[in-house]
Amino acid sequence: MFKVVLHTTAGNEFLSLKKKDKLLVANKLKNLKAGNFTGDKLLQGKHKGKYRKRAGNFRIVYLRENKIVLITVIRIAHRKEVY
């Protein structure tokens, strides 16, 4: 089991989502907490070392720290704006 921490920016982006999208993203965050990384993609370029999880038209960009306990969510945004 992992601990999921939202960066201030990611928290604000999450709170600004519509209710339907919030539920979808919240379910994906629960998957991260449970350690379900199926289908997640390792990013390259300026986001090297970070991962992304798809949540409908939204992307959750996160960083696995120490690969054991902590996942820091850096960004939650529409796929057009996230990168």
Query: How would you classify the helix and strand content by structural class?
Result: alpha+beta
Query: How many β-strands, per DSSP?
Result: 5
Helix count equals 2
Along the chain, the helix and strand elements come as EHHEEEE
Strand content: 25-35%
Oligomer: single chain
* Helix percent band: 25-40%
Average pLDDT score:
86
Q: What is the rounded Rg?
A: 12 Å
For the record, give the distance between the C-alpha atoms at the N and C termini, rounded to a whole number.
Answer: 28 Å
Low-confidence stretches: none
How would a textbook summarize the main sheet?
A: 5 strands, mixed
- Could you give the order of strands across the largest sheet? 1-5-4-3-2
Q: Any idea what the shape is?
A: globular
Quick summary:
A five-stranded mixed β-sheet has the order 1-5-4-3-2. The protein is α+β, with helices and mostly antiparallel strands. It has helices spanning 8-15, 19-34; strands spanning 3-6, 41-42, 51-55, 58-65, 70-78.
What does this structure look like?
The protein has 83 residues and is an alpha+beta fold. It is built from two helices and five strands; from the N terminus they run E-H-H-E-E-E-E. Strands 1-5-4-3-2 form a five-stranded mixed sheet. A hairpin with a 4-residue loop joins strand 4 and strand 5 (70-78).
Question: What are the salient characteristics of this protein?
Answer:
about 80 residues, alpha+beta, 5-stranded mixed β-sheet, 2 helices
Question: How is the secondary structure organized here?
Answer:
Elements: E1 3-6, H1 8-15, H2 19-34, E2 41-42, E3 51-55, E4 58-65, E5 70-78
